[in-house]
Amino acid sequence: MTEQKALPPGEGRLPPQDISAEQATLGSMFFGQQIALQGLAALAVDDFYRESHRQVFAAMKAVAAAGDSVDLITVTAALRQRALLEEAGGPEYLMALMNDTPTPQLVETYAAIVSDCSKLRKLIVFGASVQEKGMAHPEDAGALLAETVTGVLNLADGSKRLKVASMIQGWEEDAVRLHAAINQPYGVTAARSGMPALDRAIGGYSGMFLIVMMSDQKAGKTSFGIQTALSSALQFAERDEATRQRVLVIPLEEGRQSWIRLAACWMGRVDSELTLIGRCPEGEKDEINERIAEGHGQLRNLPITIADGIKTPEEAVAAIQVEQHRGDLGLIVVDYLQKLRAHGDEREALSATAEAFQSVSEETNTPLLLSSQSTWNAEKGMLQTYGSRGALFDASLVMSLRRDVDEKKRKKDTGKIKCECARSIREWGELSYRVDYPGGGRYYDIEREAEESIHATGQEDNGERGEPPQDW
């Protein structure tokens, strides 16, 4: 029987492996279909060090995939059909695997040992590849670091492994998740935009994956992203610490310091222009300082994490994966797509980046608001995407934000948010909005006055979804 060759570095030393645990795992899987499915769900073919064990496990997968029970007869037949029976040790070795199994019910314990050894071998190989790439391309440290982080996290959580399991496995957990979603109060989820009419139309962002907000230059996509992050964080902060989710912000447009400044203005209802150097009149400084201090104090208590200094798509994805490992994310806000430094053809690279955000949103099960630059096509009367078209077909929701202009083509503080397409919810057309820049850059919809009146009188909201916003 053959084993894998020793892996670099460390020539002359055997890589991590436990042949006894491999034998116990395979032997246990002959003791019933349920035990076999547990083994198939826990491991992949390349987790086994001994080649003959890989062949036996692959035959077991083929038998299960065909809908047959995994046992000595079916696995022996599968190996014989592949002309691998003798190479796998022959019928006698398969029988010995079964007869020498200590406790078949401990298959998951044995499999965990096999998996740990496999991870160590893969980590050794991965470390060698990182060393080789670093020596070959020393000028691209950022990309290599991001690739290393992603690779290590994938090894840690096995996210690239295809799980095989019966419908019975995890049935209770599946049922709990389904009923928990159904039994949630009807209304707006905690992840939200902060615009009452929009939130009622979509029901909030929770349960979605990629959400794309398209706009042309200086249309307010940064302000919209800030409001979304803060409105959601305010909701998350009301939960107990054990279930509290976080908002991850990747401020490619503004950077951390500028984003904090604008967020503090939103919280304190301060015109952000007054916080620029030399722009606050003497007579207003005391009041503005007080309101900014209050807004900044509230901001520092919110469950928000900022990933600053991101330059490439790989770094952005790695940051998201790292933060998900640190704790449960409830929303990711990326502002904006075209600010990432992509390689190759710009449009194709940006499209691939948007699709990568779609994938990481699904992997982390977290809604991701991605703002994207677009251009206004006057002939067609519509916004056109720039470099993100590939992901628009898979996004849960695509919206466009367009500001009104006056007769001199100057942008006004009003506009429309239009639903371009929606996969997981009903399409809702378009909504009118205005931005209160003197009040901190807050977005309000056309129902603002009615909502304020309801909030002031304490009357219940009779709309189809949700309740009056919490931050009036």
What do you see in this structure?
- The protein has 472 residues and is of the alpha/beta class.
- It has 2 domains: 19-127, Orthogonal Bundle (DNAb Helicase, Chain A); 187-457, Rossmann fold (3-Layer(aba) Sandwich), CATH 3.40.50.300.
- Helices cover 45% and strands 14% of the residues.
- The chain is built from 16 helices and 10 strands.
- Strands 1, 2, 3, 4, 5, 6, 7, 8, 9 and 10 form a 10-stranded mixed beta sheet that branches.
- Mean pLDDT is 85; it is low at 452-472.
Concise account of the structure shown:
The protein has 472 residues and is an alpha/beta fold. It has helices at 19-28, 33-42, 51-65, 72-81, 90-99, 107-136, 141-157, 171-182, 196-202, 221-237, 256-268, 285-300, 313-326, 346-364, 389-392, 448-457, and strands at residues 210-215, 246-251, 304-306, 329-335, 368-377, 382-385, 397-405, 411-422, 430-436, 442-445.
Q: How is this fold's topology laid out?
A:
Blueprint: H1 19-28, H2 33-42, H3 51-65, H4 72-81, H5 90-99, H6 107-136, H7 141-157, H8 171-182, H9 196-202, E1 210-215, H10 221-237, E2 246-251, H11 256-268, H12 285-300, E3 304-306, H13 313-326, E4 329-335, H14 346-364, E5 368-377, E6 382-385, H15 389-392, E7 397-405, E8 411-422, E9 430-436, E10 442-445, H16 448-457
Parallel strand pairs: 1-5, 1-7, 2-3, 2-4, 4-5
Antiparallel strand pairs: 5-6, 7-8, 8-9, 9-10
Helix pairs in contact: 1-5, 1-6, 2-6, 3-4, 6-7, 7-13, 10-11, 11-12, 13-14
